[in-house]
TrEMBL record:
InterPro entries documented for this protein: TagF_C
SUPFAM superfamilies named in the record: UDP-Glycosyltransferase/glycogen phosphorylase
Protein name: UDP-glycosyltransferase
Length: 466
């Protein structure tokens, strides 16, 4: 008899990994009965023809946002004290004191943080959050769905969504095994593990060690290294277009060499547009010296700002805008959802660009999968002033310590060096590819093409346990 697995989407961030890759096909070929337990407003049945059970009740306890924020800050305080490092304080967002309601929430949150900033306190805080969520209508709603459909296991596609707490509690209370996939390479040190499940699937040995380091209530037997499906499409040669066809589809000049500028969200890089401008200026200078270069600007899919427009308009002879093929289905960042077509676009942007340049983005890994270099900007812009976040702190984050050396990316630490670095990469005199491949293996794991299969094989092994 086929084992029935609920693949749970608490929000849209997991769609790219677990709906639009070959993840489902591989699972079905291995004999699983797969149903998507869908908490998003994207219909997997209507758009992709998948079996789905829709969650229509999206209620959370009114106090959950306050307790969840307190939990995160308490965990960061404990990490600061435990490891004697202030880097954990940089993961915190400022409190909001605008208006009576926001002020009350902030003061209440700070009281909880003061009360629970210890390892024992965090356990109590998590138990309190679980108690709150068990009291919601969504908990009862999800429990009824699980009782009706009787899955053998619930696989949650991200560990960071508060919308998943009540649903996973319902599963655990019914004795259904639960798994959380740790979604991103930077999530563990940032205290973004919202849920508690029976098992955790992670990208690499590095991430497993981090889960055990930061979450003492998790034991080693609960954590499995599976890899991530995130990079599997880069090895699917069926997505590859010829250079001529790709350039024709996006109205690019076949005589030019293109450099990809991969945009960041406003929080990570608030002055990102000026780095794009610096690249355009460097390209213009090189073109004046005989090169024939252009820039492909691919924005961050969840960046809704107009901050790049002036730079793009002033350099429209150089910059070509290739927006990610994502669909906005709501106003929140996690309601901007990827489409399967974007895999093909990203594959070919990587394949047919000379290299990528950005501020600390994980696209360094997308491009190294195509043997392409990356320049990371790491200098201040003159527009930096009090109240604007300096991008330099990004490279001090814990996840950047996984770099095997500072040669895993080409760091531009001075605007005046950018033109020279671009030229050296174009002339094959400078590259980070070999060192970045070592970094890629540390972060992503040793078998980036086999993650989906590894996830299903691990699920199969867990279901065989008595």
């Amino acid at each position: 008899m086929k084992k029935k697995v609920f693949v749970f989407f608490p929000d849209g961030v997991g769609l790219r990994n677990f709906a639009f890759t070959k993840f489902k096909n591989i699972g079905e070929q291995m004999g699983f009965d797969i149903t998507y337990w869908n908490n998003t407003i994207f219909s997997l049945k209507d758009n992709l023809g998948f079996n789905e059970v829709k969650i229509e009740d999206h209620s959370v306890h009114p106090l959950l946002p306050i307790y969840s924020r307190a939990r995160k800050r308490a965990e960061l305080n404990v990490s600061r004290d435990k490891f004697n490092e202030d880097v954990y304080l940089t993961y915190k967002f400022p409190f909001n004191y605008k208006g009576i309601k926001n002020s009350f929430k902030s003061f209440y949150t700070r009281w909880l943080i003061a009360l629970y900033s210890s390892e024992k306190g965090i356990v109590k805080l998590r138990k309190k959050i679980n108690k709150l969520e068990r009291s919601t209508s969504k908990y009862r709603y999800c429990k009824a769905q699980l009782e009706q459909h009787k899955p053998d296991l619930v696989f949650c596609t991200t560990q960071r969504a508060t919308q998943s707490i009540s649903a996973l509690l319902a599963a655990k209370d019914l004795g259904i095994p639960t798994v959380a996939f740790v979604y991103s390479w930077d999530n563990v040190p940032k205290a973004m593990q919202v849920v508690e499940t029976d098992y955790y699937f992670v990208w690499s040995d590095l991430m497993k060690a981090q889960v055990l380091q930061y979450y003492p209530f998790v034991n080693e037997k609960q954590v499995f290294v599976t890899g991530t499906p995130q990079f599997e499409p880069h090895y699917d040669t069926n997505l590859r277009q010829s250079r001529a066809d790709f350039f024709k589809d996006y109205n690019l000049d076949v005589n030019k060499k293109y450099i990809c500028y991969s945009g960041d969200d406003e929080t990570t890089s608030p002055l990102d547009q000026y780095y794009l401008e610096d690249l355009a200026n460097a390209v213009r200078n090189l073109n004046n010296k005989g090169e024939n270069l252009g820039v492909i600007y691919r924005k961050c899919p969840v960046d809704f700002t107009s901050r790049y427009n002036t730079v793009i308009e002033a350099n429209k002879d150089i910059i070509e805008v290739l927006d990610p093929i994502w669909k906005q289905v709501g106003n929140q960042w996690n309601q901007v959802l990827p489409t399967p077509e974007d895999f093909k676009m990203l594959y070919n942007v990587c394949e047919h660009s000379e290299f990528v340049t950005n501020v600390c983005s994980s696209t360094v890994f997308d491009f190294v999968a195509h043997n392409k270099p990356c320049i990371y900007y790491n200098y201040e812009q003159p527009q930096l002033k009090k109240g604007i976040r300096d991008i330099g702190q990004n490279y001090k984050y814990v996840h950047f310590r996984s770099m095997p050396s500072n040669k895993a990316a080409v760091f531009c630490t001075d605007k005046n060096d950018l033109e020279s670095l671009v030229k050296q990469i174009l002339d094959a005199k400078l590259s980070n590819v070999n060192e970045c491949k070592k970094w890629y293996e540390i972060v992503v794991g040793k078998t980036p093409t086999k993650a989906s299969k590894a996830i299903w094989k691990t699920i199969d092994n867990l279901l065989m346990k008595p």
